[in-house]
Amino acid sequence: MKLIGCLLLVSGWLIVLAALVMLTAFKERLFFAGAGCGIEILGLVLLTQGYKSLQRERE
Amino acid sequence: MSLVLCLLSIILVPLAAAGLALIHQGLGRSRSAAHAMLATLCVLGISSIVFVVVGFSWVGSAGGPVHSFVAGARWDWIGAEPFLARSIRFDGSRGSLELCLQMFAVGLAGMIPISAGTDRWRLAPICFASALLAGFTYPLFAHWVWGGGWLVQLLPNFGIPGFVDAGGAGVVQVVGGLMALSVAWILGPRRGKYSNEAIAAAIPGHNIVQVLFGCLLALVGWIGLDSATSILFYSAPPERIVAVVINAMLSASAGCLAAVATTQVRYGKPDASLSANGWIAGLVAGSAGCAFLSPVAVIFTCAVAGVLVTLMVETFELRLLVDDPGGAISVHAGAGIWGLFAVGIFGQFPAGTRGEHILAQLVGVATLLGLMLPLIHTGNLLLNCISPYRVDRDGDWQGMDIRELGAGAYPEFVVHADEFVPR
């Protein structure tokens, strides 16, 4: 779960970067950048959940 | 550029480190107070040496030599100045002032994770981690924002305004805050913090007076940091620095008062430690746009940061089971990210539409979360394999002072039995 979370974080950033490089219209860029950030948040949630479950196991 | 004003501003920056050090050790337990202070000194020492030897060459400066992804394009990913700051003329030149300022700034970023690792992070790994931060992680992002890298070159490359971080909210605070998050994940909580049912026990800070005094010191340091970065990296004229100073005071005030009001409403009484966190969160959020925000925008931005930080501290502790004794993740990463967005929303810029500025800030924040966090976390995981971060089981109840330094911070005081840590 933690690894997937990390990969999603990087994927989100790559989507934001791709939006800048491949798109020119402002609205499209904003939409894709927003989507990239959304994926990053998903990755952050997964990473957090991974460490939370690890914490529960420690207890 | 006014050399005297810039130098004076830079000289104030170590007071921010002093303030944060007092806050960090005051919010920890008394049995780890000396360890926290010594760790701060070690971090400042190591980060300044590593930064001058290696880090600054990778930060570089706008228009200086760089390593580029694509030859000929301003897609440079890291600076290529000679090591040991050999390219710097120490005659009051812009480069020498940038080196001086960032030597303190990197120390500030490096000491933020100490707060999240209080009471359980060993001294040797703290030193290794700060060396990694000063030698690679910080220079990478600092180059992109302050050294003429791709984030500040969004206009020529992609036709949108450059990412703005006038006071180091992203470069210093969010990078340090993300490092704190990574450290807290790796270390796990202090023993006795959570019951078997994952219910959190309150482990209060041991000296709230020092924490609040640290807030006052930090204000002076932040005024210096905001002013110096605005002058050096955003060419703010001396008359604009008056607004930067006013904004810094308004930031702290709004953040603190918002936290006081929030804790009063939620708990029936103002909480001193959360209010102190609100003060620093205000400074952090306000620093992102210190030279570009109106006083009204600063008050709103930092009041939101003050409310946000009280909620985030609670969420991290109670729901996400992240033990962050000083609230560093919420204060530095949380408020910093909000501050960076707020610059795009409320900033006053001579060129570019509001939407374009928001997009530019979005790109910067996405880079912090999507690239810097995995990078920082991977570095910490590797270091943890080489030198385990967490103190052993005995160290948890002995306290870091006795375990690692051999003597307590307050030897003449009666040390009460620890009701928090099961032996």
What is the fold's blueprint, element by element?
The complex is a heterodimer of chains A (59) and B (423).
Chain A: H1 2-22, H2 26-58
Chain B: H1 3-27, H2 33-59, E1 66-68, E2 76-79, H3 94-116, H4 123-146, H5 154-158, H6 169-187, H7 208-234, H8 238-267, H9 272-287, H10 295-319, H11 328-346, H12 354-386, H13 393-398, H14 400-405
Antiparallel strand pairs in B: 1-2
Give a written overview of the molecule.
The complex is a heterodimer of chains A (59) and B (423). Chain A is an all-alpha fold and 59 residues long. Chain A has one domain (2-53). Helix content of chain A is 92%, strand content 0%. Chain A has two helices and no strands. Chain A is elongated. The two termini of chain A are 19 Å apart. Chain B has one domain (3-69, 83-405): Ammonium transporter fold (Orthogonal Bundle). The radius of gyration of chain B is 20 Å and the shape is globular. Chains A and B meet through helix 1 and helix 2 of A and helix 5 and helix 12 of B.
